[in-house]
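Database export, one record per block. Field names are fixed; values are copied verbatim from the stored entry.
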Amino acid sequence: MSHPTLEDVAARAGVSRALVSLVMRGSPKVGKERREAVLKAADELGYRPNVMARGLAAGRTGMAGVLAADLHDPSFASVHDGLADEAARRGVRLLLASGGGRPARERAALGELLDLRLDGLVLAGPRIAAAEIERAAAGCPVAVAGRPLRSAGVDCVTGDDAAAVRLAVTRLAELGHRRIACLNVGRSRLEKAFETAVGEAGLTAVGDPRWRSPGAPTAVLALGDVTGTAALTGLYRAGLDVPGEVSLIVHGDAPGAAAAGVTTVAAPAAELGRLAMAALLDRIDGGVSGVSGGGGGAAGEGRRVTVPPVLTERATTGALTP
């Protein structure tokens, strides 16, 4: 079945093809009555403008690609919300692809998006090598959300993870906790930040928590949403009262944290997405970025934007009871 064309709409509305084209482009040169007749005919026929063809003629598609390293990442939904909100605000459509949590698949998906010659790409938490991202950026505007990358042609928006760890430790100290455990799966780079924060606060880092034993921690910082879920489950299975006996803060921004009442600390994922899309579209437009908080700004420079963490206190943290 063929798609309705401009000629079909023109015939239905009793006007010229050129006038239909003006209406579809939103031209102010068309009177109200004829505009309404054209739009009515287009609606009756189910006509939709060919965005890709229009983009080829104009030298811009009005579309940006989003490549998620892993759609199952708990925070990606919020990142995408920010990306989509900013794109919609600026009249840009999004095309989503996923790396499926595998660098090889991510590499292939990146190639497929580049083949479409979209206006630009946002890579969310990419796992492929930096050199591959730089090669992509050589032929297409690219912004990265959630991974630091120092490249002359790539804009990066990241959270300040070390600051998030310090904020969590500071809050636990304010609540009276002196022995804190750090649970970590695959985030060794933050263990040093934790040890430094604990030392500066004059607290004790408990390396191997043995619940209900002398010297057991009264608070836990879990690094990552998956680790946080495992930590909370483990505490409940051990029969511990949270936060009566042990307080828990999760470094992450999973959508389900609010419903579960989990205290979290992280850069807001939606803001990461919003700023990454803003940086990309600023680069596409060829102007100096309106994104605040990062270096760079000239046409060829990579801008690095750091989003400060926010601690959202919920039901898993409380003051230490004697």
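Remark 1: The chain is about 40% helix and 20% strand.
Remark 2: The first strand starts at residue 63 and ends at 68.
End of record.
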